[in-house]
Every structure is written in structure tokens, then in C-alpha cells.
Design brief:
- Pfam families: DUF3131.
- This is DUF3131 domain-containing protein.
- By secondary structure, this protein is α+β, with helices and mostly antiparallel strands.
- The protein has 2 domains: 36-48 and 243-432, no CATH class; 69-242, Alpha/alpha barrel (Glycosyltransferase), CATH 1.50.10.
- Helices cover 42% and strands 15% of the residues.
- The protein is built from 15 helices and 19 strands.
- The protein has helices spanning 2-29, 52-68, 87-102, 108-122, 158-174, 179-187, 221-230, 237-240, 261-264, 273-282, 291-315, 362-371, 375-384, 411-426, 439-444; strands at residues 35-38, 41-44, 84-85, 137-138, 155-157, 202-207, 210-215, 244-249, 252-257, 269-270, 323-325, 332-335, 338-339, 342-343, 346-348, 359-361, 388-389, 393-399, 405-409.
- Strands 16, 17, 18 and 19 form a 4-stranded antiparallel β-sheet that branches. Strands 5-6-7 form a 3-stranded antiparallel β-sheet. Strands 10-13-14 form a 3-stranded antiparallel β-sheet, with no helix packed on it.
- Helix 2 (52-68) packs antiparallel against helix 14 (411-426), helix 3 packs antiparallel against helix 4 and helix 10 packs across helix 12.
Length: 466
């Protein structure tokens, strides 16, 4: 009898082990299931072919680019019918075009035509006196302009440059035939004042009549920019690990930038965009398995998601916070999980508080919905899925206080819709490898005729700038 019991127990254990093995194998092989995990929290992301409704979402987003791309330059207006753009938004447009091709919204001929016009412009883009791209450009003629769209040299932003460099890498990975022309774009630029030898991102502006560099980036955007530069071989250590402190928001630890916004002239805010982009593009790690980004960014993204979900669960307030634009003063809003010392703070570019302007951000909803398949993101999308003009594109979002639309329509929000849907259709991150051979790497290894513009091979970590 005892022997029979032992045999039964052994058989039962073997059966359980087999069932578990089969379950894990099925989970790993089943399209549409990928677990984003951190500690005890596990959420499956949304992956799989687009439904008919999701394809319509993509078509609406792409309509923005059809309406707002300038035929002469290939540049796309930053907002509907406003002919100005920056490097971040040019990076958005490159990723949006790649997504449009992968989702079947454009054919090979249209993709080539659009990309060719844009490549020609970027390879001849006017630069500042320090050979860096300007902060803003007119989309009709690619001239350097100021915020009123008048000719001017404003300076540069390493953060914006990094976004464009991410876009260039994504196009090259999905369409390597164009990689030489994509590489040539940044080989014209001088990186001495864009990132230092310790990996600190730099921005530049006019001071006493001269273009002067200073540190740039806040937690979230800083690591995202460093990861983008690392894709090209630039140092990233200092920006990957910026100074931060933890605050408790509704019982959940949220990391915030520890630098004083009064001295950095940059608001210390926590929003979704840099963390969502890190998930959509890298899976919260850079190719090469950078564990610093894997552990820090994934955990921070998870906590930011959780605190918004918890606010909905406890207060029944749909929450998806991000930066966004308005069509009236103060024009630009930082709608935050935590900002300048306060939870759920809504800040204008003018430094004032605008609690009535808290928004359920369309770009944040699409990122959260794609990376976390939960009841909370279902509820967000149910409220957001109609926040659009089918002939013009997706609105910035819906105001928390009134439920009314913010009818501003921007490049960045519509690009996020396309990028999120490409992630879903692609079953995961857009960047999964790096090119081993490229025109860029060949030029850097040319000992007789190197670029000599503070490119990666010229740098010594911790040493003086070249």
C-alpha cells in the first residue's frame, strides 16, 4: 500500500511538472503575450495583428502626416498647419514613417519618396556656428528659426538630437538599404558641445551674444537621451545615472530628479513619455543588455504605471499624465505624476499652476495601453478611442475636470499612436539589435581621415573634451 502511495505521488509530481513546462512553453510561443515584470507585479503587454478598429486608429494618425508634410522638404509640421519643427519631432516623424510602412499604410514607392525628400533635407540642414542643429526649423524651407518662426539661431538640445538619432537608427534597422544616407546626417555635426566625455548631455543657448553649452536633461528624459546616444557609441554614464530622490505618491515610491529647477531652468517633473518610449523601443534595456537601464527604467516605469492605476482604482479618476500643447496661453503644459514638489501637479511653461488643465493624454494612453494589458488601460482606451478628428488626426486628450477635448493636434501625439501600434504588431520593442557594419563605423575607423568632431572613437572617459 505504501509503495502504491509513493508511486502515485511521484506520478502526480511528474504530471504537475509536465503541465508547468507545457504552460511556460505555450506562454512563450503564443503571439500576443509578453510579460513585463518587476518584483511581484506582472502585466502582459498587448501584442498581435491589429484589429479592424486598431487599423482605423493607425489610419487616423497617419492622416496627420499626410496633411502636414511639406512636399519641398519632407519635414512635417509640429502641430496642425503650423510650419515649424524641432529635432525631437523630426525623430518622431521618422519613426512614424517606419511604422506606416510596417503597418501597410504606405507602399514601398510612397515610403521611398517621403524618406528620400527628408534625407535630402537633413543632409543639408543649416547648422549653428558650432556645427550643431538648431533648436527650431521652418518646415517649408528648412531655415533656422525662433519660436515666432522668424530666422534666428537659438542654440541646440542634446535631448532633441538624441530623439532624432533614435529615429535614424530605427529606420536603418528596418530598412538597411538607406543606412549610408542616414549615417551621413550626423557625420556633419559637431558633438563636442552635445555630450561630454562623462556622458553628460548638453544644451546650448545664447549668452552674452555667444552660444554657450550647459548640462541638459531631467530624470527619465536624461536616461532616454543617453540610451539613444549609446546606440551610436557615445558615452552615456553620467546621464544614465542622474541624481535623483524618491518621493511617496499615494503610498508608491516615485523617483524624481534631485536637481533644483531654479538653477537648471528645467522643471523637475515625472510624466509618462520617456518611460513609455523606453519600453516601446528598447524594452527598458539597450541592445547589449545594459542592466543599468533594465533595472532602473523598468522599475520606474512600473511604479509610474501603478500609481496612475491606483488613483483610478481608489478615486475613480482616469489618469494618464504627460506633456501636451494648448492652442492658447500658456501654450505648453507639464501635466505630471509629480512636479516641482507636488503630486499630480499641472504646470505651465510660465511657471504657474493650472489644476483645471489636467489631461487624460492621448499619447500617454496609447503607450500605457500597449505596454500594460489591464482593466485600467482598457478603461483609458475606452474613453480615448474617439478623441480624434478622422480627417486631421488624434487630439491631445480629454480634460480631467470637464471631460471636454483639448482639440490641439500635434505631430508627437500622432507619432506615438503609430509607434505603439507598430510595437503591438511587431510583438515587442522596435530596436532589438545594432548593425555590426555601417558607413558610420567605417568612417570612424578611418585613421587617415576621421570626422574629428568629437565622435565616439576620439573620446577618453573622464578626460578633457577633444
Amino acid at each position: 500500500m505504501l509503495k502504491t502511495v509513493r508511486i502515485f505521488r511521484l506520478a502526480l509530481l511528474l504530471l504537475i511538472a509536465a503541465a508547468l513546462a507545457f504552460g511556460f512553453a505555450w506562454l512563450n510561443r503564443t503571439p500576443g503575450v509578453r510579460y513585463v515584470s518587476s518584483g511581484a507585479w506582472h502585466y502582459p503587454g498587448r501584442m498581435g495583428d491589429l484589429t479592424d478598429e486598431e487599423r482605423q486608429w493607425a489610419e487616423v494618425a497617419w492622416r496627420y502626416f499626410k496633411n502636414n508634410t511639406q512636399a519641398g522638404t519632407g519635414l512635417t509640421n509640429a502641430s496642425d498647419n503650423r510650419p515649424v519643427t524641432n529635432l525631437w519631432q523630426i525623430g518622431d516623424s521618422l519613426i512614424a514613417l517606419t511604422a506606416a510602412r510596417q503597418l501597410g499604410l504606405v507602399d514601398e514607392v510612397e515610403f521611398d519618396d517621403r524618406l528620400t525628400r527628408l534625407l535630402a533635407t537633413l543632409n543639408q540642414l543649416p547648422l549653428t556656428g558650432l556645427k550643431t542643429p538648431n533648436l527650431l526649423y521652418n518646415t517649408t524651407n528648412a531655415a533656422m528659426v525662433d519660436y515666432s518662426n522668424k530666422p534666428a539661431t537659438l542654440g541646440w538640445s542634446a535631448q532633441d538630437i538624441a530623439r532624432l538619432m533614435t529615429g535614424l537608427r530605427i529606420v536603418a534597422l528596418w530598412h538597411p538599404i538607406y543606412s549610408e544616407y542616414l549615417d551621413r546626417i550626423i557625420l556633419r555635426w559637431n558633438f563636442c558641445n552635445v555630450v561630454d566625455n562623462n556622458g553628460q548631455l548638453l544644451r546650448g543657448g545664447m549668452r552674452d551674444g555667444k552660444l554657450t553649452p550647459q548640462p541638459e536633461g531631467r530624470l527619465g528624459y536624461s536616461e532616454y537621451g543617453a540610451a539613444a546616444l549609446a546606440l551610436w557609441g557615445f558615452p552615456s554614464e553620467k546621464s544614465v545615472t542622474p541624481p535623483y530622490q524618491s518621493v511617496i505618491v499615494d503610498g508608491i515610491a516615485i523617483d524624481v530628479d534631485a536637481r533644483d529647477p531654479r538653477t537648471t531652468y528645467t522643471p523637475a517633473v515625472v510624466t509618462n513619455t520617456p518611460y513609455v518610449l523606453g519600453g516601446l523601443e528598447y524594452g527598458w534595456q539597450t541592445p547589449g543588455n545594459d542592466t543599468t537601464l533594465l533595472t532602473a527604467q523598468r522599475q520606474r516605469a512600473q511604479n509610474i504605471y501603478r500609481v496612475q492605476e491606483q488613483r483610478w482604482q481608489t478615486l475613480k479618476i482616469l489618469t494618464a499624465r504627460d506633456e501636451y500643447n494648448l492652442n492658447a496661453a500658456p501654450w505648453h503644459i507639464y501635466d505630471t505624476v509629480f512636479g516641482n514638489g507636488y503630486a499630480w501637479n499641472t504646470l505651465g511653461d510660465d511657471g504657474n499652476f493650472y489644476p483645471s488643465r489636467a489631461l487624460v493624454s492621448t499619447r500617454a494612453v496609447f503607450g500605457l495601453w500597449t505596454l500594460w494589458d489591464t482593466g485600467f488601460t482598457d478603461a483609458l482606451m475606452a474613453m480615448t478611442r474617439l478623441t480624434r478628428d478622422n480627417q486631421r488626426g488624434w487630439y491631445e486628450g480629454r480634460f480631467e475636470a470637464t471631460g471636454g477635448y483639448n482639440r490641439m493636434i500635434t505631430l508627437t501625439t500622432n507619432a506615438m499612436v503609430l509607434e505603439a501600434l507598430m510595437y503591438k504588431s511587431n510583438y515587442g520593442p522596435l530596436i532589438r539589435s545594432l548593425p555590426q557594419e555601417s558607413y558610420f563605423n567605417t568612417r570612424l575607423s578611418d585613421v587617415f581621415n576621421p570626422p574629428r568632431l568629437c565622435m565616439p572613437q576620439e573620446r577618453k572617459p573622464g578626460g578633457p573634451q577633444p
